[in-house]
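Page 47, continued from p. 46.
Same chain as before, 369 aa.
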Amino acid sequence: MEQAATSSNSSSFEDLTKDNEVENMQKDETFMDILGNGQLTKKVLIKGKPDTRPERLWICVINLKEELENTGELIEEYNDFIFQLSDQEVVQGLDMAIALMDIGEKAVIRCESRFAYGSIGLASKNIPPEATILYTVELLSAHLETDLEKKSYESRKEIGNKKRERGNYFFERQEFNAAIQLYRRALEYLDESEGGIKYPTGEEEEPTNAQLQNLLEDRIKTYNNLAQAQMKIKAYETALKSIDTVLQCQPNNVKALYRKGKILEAKSDVTQAINFLRKAATLDPDNKTVQNELSKLILKSKREARNEKDLYQKMLGQAQKLETKAQQKKSTNSTNPSSPNRLKLWSYTLGSILVSVAAIAIYRYKYGA
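Result:
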């Protein structure tokens, strides 16, 4: 009894201590529980200039130290790290917390896994699954991004490819919606239709053919990646538009031809899918992936044709049986003059219905309607 009472008192004391800690944190003006659930917090070490918080899509410059909370192990450290706020260039927790910092502020940001590297971690940084990360961040500066049409060729290329590579990061993590968003953002910089490239070198010079070709190649990579991510979420119509954009520029792009074939297959247009895969196989005969997919689709097409033929024959056979029965009834009802005509009409009508049903069944089988 005495031991149980001691244990109960100890438990009550621990609960009271935790409650006091939470209450003290809430009173601490330097501490912020951003979401109110303890999963994302900010502790100010040095206050910044009041009312200078950065806004969405501003360019921020920070000093950053990243550590594992449970071991204190240093993951990475950056000085003068540049990123665009709220554009998924850093983990979600940092995006949310830095938006609440003033310029000159230094803070410790604690991100549980949901707002950092999630349930899979990040092997390349030796970050385990479900890891809580501590970030020591100093916001050095923040400013509105310059207008896109005023950016130089080099700047557009650098920023666009940075966002494309970040999209690749999310694609590898199978976070396809985030990847799609980054690829689209990349295209805003790489696609010259968005305002054009007026000052590609900062000296009001026209871009050279080589520079434009380089930008085109980067743009095509991005559209190809965008289509692949859209295919992953089964957004086949938008994926088809992305691929068609590539093929308008490069009709013999093997990767785009292959992906268009896969999209058309997913849309149950096997015949057209075979045509595009056949073209890709002709352009790159050593590509085993294309060859295997083409062989698979040709077999599928033959199997579908055989099934359609069997279904037609089965339904037409049933129609012929009904007509035979009608003829037999005709002979037994010869005393009724109007009966043969009614039976004949009925047999034709029923036969037509069966043929129509067969056609609908084949359409549904073929196109998955």
